[in-house]
Amino acid sequence: MSEAVVTLGPYLFIVLAGMLPTIVWRWIGVFAAGRLKQDDEIFVWVRAVANALVAGVIARLILFPTGALAATPTELRIGAAIVGLVAFLIGGSRIYVGVLAAEAVLIGGWFLLFV
Amino acid sequence: MIGVASIPCLVLVSAYIGFAGLARDSGVSAFEASFMTAVVWALPNQVVLVGAMVGGVSVFTAALAVTLTAVRLMPMVVTLVPLLRSGGAPRWQILILSQWIAVTSWVVAQTRLPKLPPEARAPYFFGFAVTLATVVVTATGVAHATIGHLPDKIAGGLYFLTPIYFLVSIWGTSRLPSDRLAMLIGLVLGPVLYVYAPGPDLMLSGLGGGTAAYLIGRAMRRRAHE
Hints:
heterodimer; A: about 75% helix; B: mainly alpha; 11 helices
């Protein structure tokens, strides 16, 4: 744990660094409703920033995993993610189709590599 | 609640199982992880927060990274509020309800609320959201306690649910070319900065990659209009 977590205690850290920075945007959304449209330039930029940030999180979880997943080859995880995204796109944009396809490749490949 | 036993909600629960594993490996306890789910209620923000808790950054840097992740919730709230208020619910009730607006509840609400009479929409969303939150908070704790005892291939598959869920759900809610371009840039820039600038890496790849995607997208739209 980082020094800041130890100093503040984990729960206060979660409230200050997790809960407040999140709830602020939900409340701004409530007050902005009716005044802003979803296609305003500020939203387009905000969504791009958030998407790039979350994409960084996705890449980190796939390339530098923790726990049991760390035992799998990087290529298998990247391949499974690509297959999942392609299956999602051709499977009528249903999230579970993408998730199941990616999991099938990951676990299937895992069995083939380490029987 | 019929809405909770739906496929999007089942996928959400499984993605939270992966999160519980990540939290456990990062030294975040089961109660801390469940508490985080209850008060933050946005999975990407929680993953960023867990990373900050082990990464040794200040509470200010952690809050900044989480807030940049959270801005994507604002447009969702903006589009859902007219539906929730259509039955005459006062603003203080909407402020409370907004706590449970995140990708999955937003998708479910967008499809189900318009089919209900206006005065039933806010109460339905309240019941749906609180039920879903209770299930997911419980699942976070239970998964935290059990994932270490599962066979490797099952645990690994559960860990993999979180990134793959983000990947398809955020790609699916992207509407403009700049949204998808931002994802592609972030997928490449994120790991590079993680290696060369650990700590502020997510903030940098979000602001830098996102702004670049926005500017390219705007230039493309302008050219299309000419």
